[in-house]
Amino acid sequence: MTTEERPYQDERPRPQRGRRVLVVLLVLLLVLVGLLVVADRVAAGVAERALTEQVREELATQGVQAGPPEVEIGGFPFVTQVLDGRYERISIGLKEVRGSVQGDVLALPTLDIDAYDVTASLDTLRSGRGGVIAGSVTGTGTISYDSLATRLDREGLQLGERDGRLAVTAPVDIFGQQVPVSGTADITVEQGQVALRFTGLTAEGLPNGSLARMLLSNFAEGISVDVPLPALPFDLTVSEVRPLPEGLQITAEAVEVPINAAS
Predict the structure, then answer these.
(1) How far apart are CA 115 and CA 13, in angstroms?
(2) Is the dihedral of CA 59, 60, 62, 67 positive or negative?
(3) CA 239, 240, 244: angle at the middle one, nearest 5?
(4) Residue 50: CA count within 13 A, CB half-sphere
(5) 3-state secondary structure the chain
(6) Angle ∠(188,189,195) on CA atoms, nearest 5
(7) To pair with 84 at 20 to 30 A between CA atoms, which of 29, 142, 195, 212?
(8) pLDDT per position as a tens digit, 223-238
(9) For residue range 81-138, what is the model confidence (pLDDT) as tens digits?
(10) pLDDT tens digits, one per residue of 25-52
């Protein structure tokens, strides 16, 4: 066969080997990143358990009655935060927070606390000695309507949320008959307690006379009370109260707060 008759052959090197090397490198890189992420989360879990014990001791020192705290360290990666000794956010979840207030027990089914700009040395996390300080802390919790209704001590009284306001319904004895009364309350926070002021009560089928208005006014005054709040942990001070369908939500804030007492 002459040179002219031989079929054309592409003698250029094929990039198959280079592609295989690239794929292998990419797989190894993904595996390495995955291992680093897992190691980072494992280290965060160890720190979270250490902080949980320290928070538990601090709550006991402050006399706060609650279920076991749940601590979660936010931000990624965790290791760089450890080396810097500063954490973006530490979340603390508390359940069944209770406090005795003038003989009555007010319950917060949940109290979620977020501590920001937290400083804690590696030695503190490892040994439990030293202070953990948060630049700012925000807490949100809910007071059950049943707890509030029990404190108002009126048979048949029910509280709830209506159009973003605290609403009340109750049977009231007027002119010898039970009349359903309803209305809403103005809510303010004054010196560590929630002030409930019920206004604009109406009674179904009640004549609009001066005596009827006086009876409704007396009832509204009787259920308008100041509700002292239990002492909150970490120096939290209530800044806002808002009615929600599940209860009366409180928002509290504090700055430069020790998450655990230095020892």
Answers:
(1) 60
(2) positive
(3) 155
(4) 19
(5) CCHHHCCCCCCCCCCHHHHHHHHHHHHHHHHHHHHHHHHHHHHHHHHHHHHHHHHHHHHHHHCCECCCCEEEECCCCHHHHHHHCEEEEEEEEEEEEEEEECCEEEEEEEEEEEEEEEECCHHHHHHCCCCEEEEEEEEEEEECHHHHHHHHCCCCCEEEEECCEEEEEEEEEECCEEEEEEEEEEEEEECCEEEEEEEEEEECCCCCCHHHHHHHHHHHHHHCCEEECCCCHHHCEEEEEEEECCEEEEEEEEEEEEEECCC
(6) 60
(7) 29
(8) 888 877 777 888 888 8
(9) 777 778 888 889 988 887 655 555 566 788 899 999 988 777 776 666 777 888 999 9
(10) 666 666 665 555 555 566 666 677 777 7
Cβ count near 110 (within 10 Å)? 16
Q: Which residue type occupies 59?
A: L
**Token couple for 217:** 């006014």
